[in-house]
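Input.
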Amino acid sequence: MRNVNQKILIVEDEAPMCELLMTFFSEKGYKVDAVQNGEEAIRQLEERDCALVITDIKLPGLSGLELLARIQLDWPDVAVIIMTAFSSISSAVEAMKLGAEDYIGKPFQLDELAITVEKALERRSLRREVKELRAEVRERYNFSNLVGRSKPMQQLFEVIKRIAARRDASALIIGSTGTGKELVARAIHYNSDRKNAPFVPINCSAIPETLLESELFGHQRGAFTGAHETRRGLIEEAQGGTVFLDEINTLSQNLQVKLLRVLQERIVRKVGGRENIPIDVRFVSASNRDLEDAVKRGEFRQDLFYRLNVVPVRLSDLKDRREDIPLLVHHFLRKFADQHNEPVRRFAGEAMRILMTHTWPGNVRELENAVEHALTMGSGETLTVEDLPTSVTASERDIVDEALLDNATLAEVERRYILRVLEKMEGHQMRTAHALGIDRRTLYRRLRQYGQGSDKNNEDGRSKGDVLKKGGVQVKASSL
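Output.
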């Protein structure tokens, strides 16, 4: 598809050629201006946006090469095509070295110039798109997008800053599933001076061991069955950037030895190859298991552990930083609203209470999924308990966390605990008293205080008047 409607500036001191090029490109749908010297071209660029400059290399006053140098300095996003006589091809080559997009020799066919312009504009658009995407990625993994005000998160921010500032420092991230290990690795990369080079994530457990060596280090053609061509490995692909080795604990002993050599000597050798290829990459590794224990058990090499663990990063479980949950919930609500171009919704108080007191075994990933589930199932502006997944609403809740959230007294904590045990025992008072380690009469007195007892009891130990909560609905024990 042609990049029409973009602005082209023609710099040519011969009036007939100027007129010809203006007419030709205007008819093709481009917006065209023309000037006859470099000084006028600079004034035009200062006043108006321009996508591409077509300039003769020989101009009165400021030469085409001098104009090119000025454009490269002040308007680097503007593409430049140099027109030159065939006798001055060496000057055109010099122009390419200085940053010209392309050149064309005089005399030329107009259709040939049109193709050159179209390709130059396409390359310019691709560069701008890549630049915008990189800026978007950098913004996405900026510290402001790592959500949390808790003490563990503030400590994490400081560690990331320190690692990012050291170009070659390796880091080992330890955290449970769903705590955001790759997010932290990307934050390290995109806040360092390696941010414009590749970030290459590799899940060591997702690639079969027979293929992982070739994926990491590359292979020579014919190195093994199916190796029909020479391929670079992922470590080499990350040249200048960061390699993220997720689930590093699953590496075989054989690959551990080979990775250690890469870390020590900063070279890779393809499978079946003889050449040592220098590499300039940072290694960030992650594991959901404590590698020190794996070292003690002989499952992970101690020397490799020390190479990877230059800076240890431990991520807290979400249940250990509950004060961040409302911030994360709001972050996800905004994120999904932006994705679907809809207003930001909110959770009702009781729904937020459940989110605050759930144990979150899947950590931040589970919380994000729960928010998305609620947005999908809920139809109103305010999301309720009924909109949350049953895995969240029906799970056991931490009584202490609930009490802290509600500023509950010790007596209230006791009441909640007794009633929860009673519910767990399906309203059976004798089993409840036994589980609590108290006399049944003591339990009965407590239940009457809570308005949960009656004068008559069933033979199985349930009080006919006992009222329990199941699935958020109050029912009489006698009806269970």
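The first strand starts at residue 7 and ends at 11.
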